[in-house]
Design brief:
Chain lengths: 387, 387
């Protein structure tokens, strides 16, 4: 079956071009005027940009969007989130993930790195949606839905597709003990899986870890041999300079989630240290109950503004944060995407330049990061297909 | 001519209702099923919320959206903004304000408090658009477009309409000297106009004012007798506890502009002090060149997140920030709006509850503040008319 897609006359790097996509990749960035394809998009008035890779979320938590927010963290978790989660069954997870996938596609996201329960529901929905995802097999001690043996079997028997991979997801140092963390690392490495974990999200997490292990979470996890280039570490808000050097040396990918860190009062991400360390930084929305959406465009702007607020207006430019939200995320998960270039996977958004938010267009990337919203998005393309 | 509008079956305070609007106001919040009107909106699947009042912007600066951003403040002003502004004529202002008005309407804003030049262009556009605005007659020393005598004549001869008022706008303590500030206050009070001014946006402004007058901007302006219930003070980022008490006692309205303060590295608004003082706080987007949009929904979320980031997740709730963005702004400018209630001006937005960003709906206001974007807006109503 011919799966070719021709995007005619679309703005790329300041010029109107005809882009040809085949077998999920850009194959020609300057196709002839008379080129043909199985599917054609008229790109007149549109610009093409890389689609988003959301590197930390809990998709089904859309179910808790707006549920019990504006409350102190512990009251929110103990009186609202946990009692709600106790009642969720597979059908609820399915419903929550379905809303999440609709929202992500409508806001230009083609990949999400998930950590939750009842993963079969989410896997089926991602398969049908045309998106990509890394679905975490969550490991927490004392949690009925995270039985260790069953998880290990699942990880061992899983075969990746071109759009879906499984990850091993020990939740955090405060919910997974030493044995669980070591098991998770072993299981991931024996089976070539990424490791998805929360690290140093709050001051309390760091203090408790220090009290229990004599080390901060980054140093403790490093002492266990868990940190490596296969690790995606969400948050890393309370990480000092020496720890940033450890993360960078081990090749850890950091998923920065500014909206969630702000909304829960967790603190400002240490942009200066993080950027100086050279660690790979990506962006995530976290779950809807602490954001309360899955909109990566908004996450880009929030990150850039939070970087600048303490006084340096030049810190974290639009181009840099767009790279965090696209190419850095794709690279972290082994997808050759995040750039609109020949040979790259065709994961892209087409935005409407006539939308007032995109007008005038002194700088397309600046408009996209600082001004746009999902009303500017006309098409979302993943793996060469229109979603 | 019958100007009635019936909004059928729309969600208000958790119930489906038929709302009747006449002569620009809500006249019945529970109209009979068979009620008729000159214009009818089917509110099935929609919820109604108050429309936005943007209390600080420079509308025509849409022309500089994305122009020279991510640069230090003084380089940005001196090498980018000011040389650009020097070249602007009335036709450019018209074009810039036109884009601004299109963007504001599409994002749910029905009123803006403007400060710029060539105001006749903007006035004509507002008149035609159906929006409301307070248009500032800008006063700066040594600026060719702000001749004092001409301005005074303009203010004296102006007659307000039900949608447009003029304000006296001495730009700031660093661009308007003592005489200009005193003239502005006298002119405003003799003619019953509001005063629109920037106050304590940056540390530099405060330090320079201290060096020149021995007082901070708030204390200096108070010593001149300028502060009063007719003043709208933009920014107020660097304002101490005693100054907040002065602002509150004088009845000054503060326009908080979080995106601009963050993007320019001006600093975090002192939410704790501001809220504790009891001063009336409203929201503004500032101009597009420092934001880079005019989207008040985004401004609400940014304000609430920036309030919480330092540790208190309960500070500035969704309901409170929505009030800043709507009713508080309306009240500051003497419009009896900002609530969906009988007798109030019909300034409203109708949002689509089927949008994934609005799903599920545990809390409509939370979804609107933290999750929505302009793709959720179906209708914008100002003064009882659909824009």
């Amino acid at each position: 079956m011919d799966n070719s897609l021709l995007i005619k006359n679309v703005l790329l790097d300041g010029e109107r071009r005809n882009l040809l996509v085949r077998d999920g990749r850009f194959v020609c960035m300057d196709a002839a005027r008379g080129a043909e394809a199985a599917k054609v998009i008229d790109g007149e008035g549109l610009a093409i940009l890389p689609a988003f890779y959301n590197t930390h979320t809990h998709a089904a938590m859309t179910l808790m969007r707006g549920y019990g927010d504006d409350r102190p963290l512990h009251e929110w978790l103990e009186q609202w989130v946990w009692p709600f989660e106790d009642k969720l069954g597979p059908e609820d997870i399915r419903h929550g993930s379905e809303i999440a996938i609709r929202e992500m596609i409508s806001t230009g996201t083609v990949f999400f790195n998930d950590m939750y329960f009842d993963i079969d529901e989410t896997i089926q929905l991602v398969e049908a949606s045309g998106m990509r995802a890394a679905i975490g097999v969550t490991m927490m001690d004392n949690h009925p839905k995270t039985l260790k043996d069953e998880k290990a079997t699942r990880i061992r028997s899983w075969k990746d597709s071109d759009r879906i991979q499984l990850t091993v997801a020990p939740h955090s140092v405060y919910t997974a003990g030493r044995e669980t963390l070591l098991d998770a690392a072993r299981l991931a490495r024996e089976n070539g899986r990424k490791i998805h974990i929360h690290i140093s999200e709050t001051v309390k997490e760091v203090q408790d870890c220090l009290a229990q292990t004599g080390m901060t979470p980054v140093r403790y996890l490093d002492s266990l041999g868990l940190l490596g280039p296969d690790v995606i570490a969400a948050h890393c808000v309370h990480v000092d300079k020496e720890e940033w050097d450890i993360l960078a040396e081990r090749g850890v990918t950091v998923s920065h989630c500014p909206c969630s860190n702000m909304k829960l009062g967790s603190g400002r991400f240490p942009y200066e240290l993080a950027i100086a360390s050279g660690a790979r930084i990506t962006l995530g929305t976290d779950g809807c109950s602490s954001n309360n959406n899955l909109d990566m465009r908004e996450e880009m702007k929030t990150a850039a503004l939070l970087a600048k607020v303490t006084g340096d207006a030049a810190l974290l430019s639009a181009a840099q944060v767009l790279r965090w939200a696209t190419r850095n995320g794709a690279e972290a998960f082994g997808y050759d995407a995040g750039e609109i270039a020949s040979g790259k996977l065709a994961d892209a958004v087409l935005v409407d330049l006539s939308n007032p938010k995109m007008t005038p267009c002194h700088n397309l990337v600046s408009n996209w990061v600082y001004s746009a919203d999902s009303s500017c998005i006309k098409y979302v393309i993943c793996n060469g297909k229109i979603l």
